[in-house]
Each structure stands twice: as C-alpha cells, then as structure tokens.
Specification:
Radius of gyration: 20 Å
Number of strands: 2
Distance between the termini: 24 Å
Shape: globular
Largest sheet: 2 strands, antiparallel
Order of helices and strands: HHHHHHHHHHEEH
Helix content: over 70%
Number of helices: 11
C-alpha cells in the first residue's frame, strides 16, 4: 500500500478514534512526553538561548526519531502501518477533549454559574479566570477553540501529510514544548526562545489552512475574509491571528481585546471589530465555535490526504516524462 493511502486511512481512523474515545484520563502519550521533556529541562536549564535550543532539539528531534523508527519497523505491513498512523493521529489530535471542555464551560455559563465556568477555564487555556466575567470567559473559550483547532488538529494533519508518523509526533512535540517553555516568563524568556520560534514556524501552514477552511465552512465567508485581511496582522501571534480573526468573522462575533496571563495584562487588537453587527460571544457561540472546529478538522483531513495524493501523482508523472 502506498504511503499516501496509509496516511489517509490511518489519519481518518485516528480522527474517528478521537471522536469516539477522546483522550485517555491516564497515561496519555503527550503527558508522558511532557514529563520526559521536563526531566530534560531540569538537567539542561540555564538562562541561555543555546541551552534552550539544545532542549528543543533533543525533545522534538527525539519524538520525530521515535516515530521514524516505529514507521520503519512496520513498513512491510500495510495493516500495521495504517494502525500505527491511526494510533499516532489519535495520540496527537485533541479535538474531542477540546470540545468537551468548551461545552462544559458553556453549560456552566448557560446556568449562570460563573464560578464553575471559572474553575473549568484553566483546563482549556492559561488565562486568569478570576479577572473574567461571563462575557470574558465566553470570549476566551471561543478564542481557545479557534487556536487549538489549528494547534491540536489541523497542524498535526498537515505535518502528518508531509512526513507521516514522524511529522505527527514531531509537530505535537514542538507544540507541547511551546506550551511548556515558550512563554515570556522570567525563567523562559531565553531558554524557551527556540521552542517558541520553532512552534511559530511549524504552525504557520496549519494556521493558514485553518483560516481558509473556517472561511469556507463558517456561516459568513465574506466576514471571515474581511476580518482575516483587516485584523490578523495586528495580532501579536503570527499564527493565532489569522485563525482567531477568521473564526471571529465566520461566527459574526468580536474577539481580542484586553486579557491577563499569569498576572500579566495584554492589550490585544479587537478582531472583527469593524463589522457593525458583530457582538461579544456568549455561551451559545461556544457551541457554534465547536461545530465549526469539527467541520474544519474533517475538511483538513480531506485536503491533506488529497494534497498528498496529488503530490504523489505529480512526482510520478514528472519521473515518467
């Protein structure tokens, strides 16, 4: 069986497994990687970019190398190759867990239980929940759903299409390292620099594909394009900007603005603020964002599998001519 079919069948099985099973409560492979990366950090940490780059290379490179070794071990068996791709896809995507956490917060907001919503918010993002009212929590959830659609689903599929199992595991490793050490705290300003920059680079294609698919699958394609073109470039993140702006336009809501991380206040640009009918998201918009995220994930699978098939055909035709 050719590699493009292995990826298509395996990735579809992995997404279906995530839909049906979600993440395991114990023993998740990403959590195991996080513990290993933390152990490496304790050995290597210095307030120095070079040490941080070595940490990134060892952890992300090790994950990709593990994937390459596993793929090599089963390459003679199509069934085993599909199963390995499916298992890797299930391990690295997080669409169902994302949806469950978002829905739980949405239900708490619908019941006017803001304290319960605040208690659940740290499961989804790193913002300070005590600084947020109900509208602020809903906005944080919609933004997190948008960003994690790219980070936890589409980006992984893109790199899986490019590099198979090593691409899946390597991308997830890079994304996890960024979450662990890529933020601008006093400890990680230098040590986490390499992880943050590599995550920006690895996430670039998935973020753009997510924005395109949100435009196609959302309820307001023109609004999504307008918000993306007008507001994405003003966002401090080169990848979150296009994704959040396109989601904002597609859903007809305003995102961005002032937020707080770990006691640090940031004033971000308003996304889709120029749209006259756009409003702050509410609890009902959380469900809409989750549905859009689901559609984007499955569309991304089709695009990535199709692109890999077309690339194979183009390469074959080029060799034959």
């Amino acid at each position: 069986m050719r590699a493009e079919r292995v990826f298509a069948y395996g990735a579809a099985a992995g997404l279906l497994g995530d839909l049906l099973l979600g993440d395991p409560r114990r023993g998740h492979p990403v959590a195991a990687f996080g513990r290993a990366a933390g152990a490496v950090e304790r050995v290597l940490w210095r307030d120095h970019r070079g040490r941080g780059a070595l940490h990134t290379a060892l952890c992300a490179g090790g994950a990709a190398a593990l994937g390459a070794s596993a793929a090599r071990a089963v390459r003679r068996s199509p069934a085993a190759s599909v199963a390995l791709t499916g298992a890797a896809t299930w391990a690295v995507v997080g669409g169902t867990s994302l949806a469950r956490e978002a829905h739980a917060i949405g239900r708490a907001l619908e019941a006017d239980d803001v304290e319960a919503a605040r208690a659940r918010l740290p499961h989804l993002c790193g913002r300070d929940p005590q600084a947020l009212d109900a509208d602020g929590i809903a906005r944080a959830v919609v933004e997190s759903v948008a960003e994690n659609t790219s980070d936890a689903v589409v980006g992984a599929l893109v790199w899986g299409a490019v590099a198979g199992v090593p691409g899946l595991l390597g991308f997830r490793a890079v994304n996890t390292l960024d979450a662990m050490v890529g933020h601008r705290s006093a400890r990680y300003r230098r040590f986490g620099w390499a992880s943050a920059r590599l995550d920006d680079l690895a996430g670039w294609p998935g973020a753009r594909l997510t924005a395109v698919l949100a435009t196609v699958a959302g309820g307001d394609p023109r609004g999504a394009v307008r918000a993306w073109r007008t507001d994405a470039g003003r966002h401090p993140s080169p990848n979150a900007g296009p994704v959040e702006a396109s989601f904002a336009g597609a859903l007809g809501v305003r995102l961005g603005g002032t937020l707080s991380y770990g006691g640090r206040v940031e004033h971000r640009p308003v996304l889709n603020g120029a749209a006259g009918r756009a409003v702050l998201p509410g609890s009902g918009d959380i469900d809409r964002a989750v549905r859009l995220s689901r559609r984007v994930g499955w569309l991304a699978l089709g695009v990535c599998a199709g692109a890999r098939l077309l690339a194979r055909r183009a390469l074959t035709k080029g060799r034959d001519s």
